[in-house]
Amino acid sequence: MKNGKLFLVMFTFLSFCVLFPLGEAKAYENTMSNNFEVDGIKVEILADNNKEKIVKTDDGLNVYIVNYNKQDNTHNIETYDNNNNLLSVENINFDKESGYLKSNTVLSDTTQDISTFNTLVPIGSNGLLDDYGYRMYKYGTSIMWFLYLTPTEYKNTAESRLKNKDDLMAFKASVDSFMSNKDQLVAKIGGGVVVTLATLWLTPDLTWSKFLAVLLTTVSAAIAYAEGKAIYNAYQDSKTFYSRTTTVVVGQE
After folding, report:
1. Could you tell me which residues come within 8 angstroms of residue 159 by beta carbon, excluding any fewer than 6 positions away?
2. Least CB-packed of 12, 107, 223, 238 within 10 Å?
3. Which residues sit opposite 138 in a β-bridge?
């Protein structure tokens, strides 16, 4: 009988180890504490109740205090330097109409007049409508790319094997990674929170510690570090390859 009980205990323990790996156990343990570290960033949960959640992050250069109002779905973001001097205050209301509700139009810049491209054939796209991502079109023997970094920062270019193809493909890969991790985040926490965070993803000069503070007002530490960090890194890569992509006019590939 004792051997039977011992076997049951060992089986239960081993099953727990298989179903709940030590790495996930550590992440789960972190979320149970109001003070922990992520990538060397000090995190403190200052408050969490039915009305609000307040998170503080400190990366050694700046301190971010984010107050998420659960009643009206707003984030108040305060930024301090390491001497505790207030640098900025942002209040973001994510209930306002965003780019996700805009018509799916083709934008252009001063590179070339796309109104003459009346035979564009779509061959691929990914992203957040006109806010972020890429669209690819076949135009005669050329391939046209429309790149979107923010709702106000975009460009179009013809693909050139010698001049810009590598950077275009790298930009595409970063967008695909962003969207893949975004989809995983939606599967875990629902689309509403992702739409809430999307505006912040597209904020210029967004730091990981600031993004982390906002993330932690709505998701667990484990999710913030997994999909959240992957999304942040993918967008930083997009910024790099967007700036490196040379604009090429059709016919000059």
Report:
1. 142, 143, 144, 145, 165, 168, 248, 253
2. 12
3. 121, 143
User: How many alpha carbons fall within 13 Å on the CB side of residue 62?
Assistant: 18
Mapping DSSP to helix (H, G, I), strand (E, B) and coil, where does residue 174 land? helix
Give the C-alpha separation, 129 to 239, whole Å: 17
Burial (Cβ within 10 Å: 0-12, 13-18, ≥19) of residue 99: middle
* Cα 45 to Cα 25, 56, 141, distances in angstroms: 19, 6, 56
CB 139 within 8 A of CB 157: no
Would you say residue 67 has pLDDT above 60? yes
> Under DSSP, is residue 50 helix (H, G, I), strand (E, B) or coil?
coil
Q: What is the pLDDT of residue 115?
A: 54
> Could you tell me which of 188, 196, 181, 178 has the C-alpha nearest to residue 126?
178
**pLDDT of 152-163, one tens digit each?**
889 999 999 999
Helix or strand holding residue 199 (H, E): helix 191-201
Note the pTM of the prediction, 2 decimals: 0.74
Give the distance, in angstroms, between the CA of residue 122 and the centroid of all CA atoms in the same chain. Answer: 26
Regarding predicted confidence, which is higher, 107 or 72? 72
H or E element that contains 230: helix 229-244
Instruction: Count Cβ atoms below 10 Å from residue 156 Cβ, excluding itself.
Output: 23
User: Which of the pair, 11 or 224, is modelled with greater confidence?
Assistant: 224
Structure tokens at 90: 């942002």
